[in-house]
């Protein structure tokens, strides 16, 4: 439902930054044309999806029609006026089951994946055999990070699936579909100490089942233990996305991340000692609240240390900006500081609105935006590293 994700892999975000920050009129004009295409594509996709809902209502006037999913929990109030009044807009799957007069299971967090039934209902499944399969091991996040919407989406209480059910699901996809690549879709792996045992049990189950596969996930590694790191490597860890955000502790504290830079660096050392040979993706949120030129230099220094630890060709910086999303503390802060006005439209497609929804305020906004725009010019595959190189050059020249 959103036109952009606020990281350097997203085309709409790149076009918006090029339009506002690139010093070249030629590149600004080119970004404007591409941005117009982004807007038209987005609007047509939304119109097409809303038309599908209206078509269903017309084709089956006596049927129950419901729309749900995570985006509905965040943007449902904006969606309701755009669909027929008889359509139920639901963020709660339990409420959907009640509408169907189906008993609500004791735990909605223990899905039973009946693959033969999936194949019958979705005959196109074979086209996805070579794709990465997402499997969720738990729901909920106890952390209260300034910008994150997961706590609102899934709740603060962590509800863990039984490890044997997770292993059974992975094994089913692997044996029946031949799937070999998996992504654990949790808000993040290792959210609190109890997750150590939970993940360890899952990985031991995968070892016992002798599954020939690889897996990835998004993880906090500030508490990573050597025994768990060893299991991760032995079970086929392919690449790992790491929460860091900043190399400066004051920024980490403002973001309420709940870890120290030193703890994260120690986690990297544990991972390296376990013999990990895959990719490391390091999330860096530039111009977060509290950012200064000095904190940017600290971040560049920490990232360079990680690159030296694993080798530069294996470390990818994923540069992103904080998205101002509904139901987050960052949204409240943006409203209080006048960056947004009450009643703003979080689904707006206009570039000047996108610029506000991507948190990149002055005084550093233009400097960082220019570093990004220059890196976006030639479609380089390693945009994150180019952004950091441009930023480092800008800071050294001041």
What does this structure look like?
This protein has 398 residues and is of the alpha/beta class. Helix content is 48%, strand content 13%. It is built from 16 helices and twelve strands. It has helices spanning 11-21, 25-59, 70-79, 93-99, 115-121, 150-154, 163-177, 194-208, 226-234, 249-254, 261-273, 293-310, 329-336, 351-357, 365-376, 383-397; strands at 66-67, 88-89, 133-135, 138-139, 159-160, 181-189, 214-219, 237-245, 279-285, 315-320, 322-323, 358-359. The protein has a six-stranded parallel sheet with strand order 3-6-7-8-9-10. A two-stranded parallel ribbon has the order 1-2. A two-stranded antiparallel ribbon has the order 4-5. Helix 15 (365-376) packs across helix 16 (383-397). The chain starts with 10 loop residues before the first helix and ends with a helix. The mean pLDDT is 89.
Cα radius of gyration in angstroms: 22 Å
Strand content: 5-15%
Biggest sheet: strand arrangement: 3-6-7-8-9-10
Helix content: 40-55%
Compute the separation of the termini in Å.
40 Å
Q: Could you name the ranges where pLDDT drops below 50 across 5 or more consecutive residues?
A: none
- Helix and strand composition category: alpha/beta
Q: How would you describe the shape?
A: globular
Mean pLDDT: 89
- Report the count of strand segments: 12
């Amino acid at each position: 439902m959103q036109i952009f994700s606020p990281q350097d892999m997203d085309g709409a975000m790149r076009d918006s930054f090029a339009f506002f920050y690139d010093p070249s009129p030629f590149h600004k004009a080119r970004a404007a044309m591409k941005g117009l295409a982004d807007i038209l594509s987005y609007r047509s996709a939304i119109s097409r999806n809303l038309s599908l809902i209206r078509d269903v209502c017309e084709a089956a006037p006596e049927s129950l029609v419901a729309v749900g999913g995570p985006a509905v929990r965040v943007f449902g109030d904006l969606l309701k006026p755009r669909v027929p009044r008889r359509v139920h807009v639901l963020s709660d799957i339990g409420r959907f089951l009640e509408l169907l007069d189906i008993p609500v299971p004791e735990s909605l967090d223990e899905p039973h994946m009946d693959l033969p039934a999936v194949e019958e209902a979705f005959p196109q499944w074979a086209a996805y055999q070579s794709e990465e399969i997402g499997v969720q091991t738990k729901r909920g996040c106890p952390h209260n990070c300034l910008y994150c919407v997961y706590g609102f989406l899934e709740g603060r209480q962590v509800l863990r699936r039984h490890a044997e059910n997770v292993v059974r699901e992975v094994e089913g996809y692997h044996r029946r579909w031949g799937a070999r690549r998996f992504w654990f879709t949790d808000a993040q792996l290792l959210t609190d100490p109890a997750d150590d045992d939970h993940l360890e049990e899952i990985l031991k189950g995968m070892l016992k089942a002798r599954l020939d596969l690889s897996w990835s996930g998004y993880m906090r590694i500030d508490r990573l233990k050597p025994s768990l790191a060893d299991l991760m490597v032995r079970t086929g860890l392919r690449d790992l996305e790491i929460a860091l955000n900043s190399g400066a502790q004051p920024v980490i504290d403002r973001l309420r991340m709940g870890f120290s830079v030193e703890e994260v660096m120690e986690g990297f050392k544990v991972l390296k000692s376990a013999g990990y040979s895959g990719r490391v993706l390091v999330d860096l949120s530039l111009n977060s609240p509290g950012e200064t030129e000095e904190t940017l230099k600290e971040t560049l220094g920490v990232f360079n240390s990680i690159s030296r630890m694993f080798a530069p060709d294996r470390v990818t910086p994923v540069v992103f900006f904080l998205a101002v999303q509904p139901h987050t503390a960052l949204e409240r802060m943006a409203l209080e500081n006048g960056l947004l006005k009450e009643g703003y439209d979080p689904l707006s497609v206009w570039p000047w609105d996108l610029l506000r929804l991507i948190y990149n305020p002055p005084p550093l906004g233009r400097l960082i935006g220019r570093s990004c725009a220059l890196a976006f010019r030639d479609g380089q595959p390693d945009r994150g590293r180019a952004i950091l190189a441009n930023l480092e050059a800008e800071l050294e020249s001041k």
